[in-house]
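To: structure desk
From: M.T.
Subject: fold request, one chain
Message: Could you run this one when you get a chance? Sequence is below, nothing fancy, just the single chain.
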Amino acid sequence: MDVGHLESLATLRIIVGYLGEREQFAWWPSEFFAPGSAAFLAPLFARTQLLAQCNGVTLAAARIHDERIGVGQVYHLFRLPEDLEQGIHRTLNDDAACSRLAEQAVDRTSALISLRALAGSASPAAVGPVRAGSAADLRSMAAWSTVAAHYLHAVEQGEQVFPYFRDDV
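Reply: Done. Structure tokens follow.
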């Protein structure tokens, strides 16, 4: 997956992670992107604050997704194959990328605008666990646009959705 796709995937993870937090739509009980979290994280993670926030929300969201979807031969936005996880990590260590990505989780309005942009013209309308494709589709930006559209629909409707990719068995 190229750098631009990895940045889009990191953006989607940050946006959905932010929107799912307690102060937004309360899908998971974390507050890594809450206004007060910066004061706590800055002294510990001065250069990598966004990475720390993303890692924290990823763990919280992964737990909820795993409870709803299950674990095994499935992947979702918050638990990906190792090469994609490493790519997201590298993206979040890049200062220029972090400057762009940090703007995505400033407030609910900007997060929703960014989520709409990532969703593009896709418009699925599902709730709960929903298969977004096979594991081979994990590297397709079209598949991730559909995932973004699922999350967008869910937050706009006050529902929860858990898009996943499954290895073909």
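Reply (cont.): Helices lie at 3-20, 37-41, 49-69, 82-92, 95-102, 108-119, 141-157. Let me know if you need anything else for the meeting.
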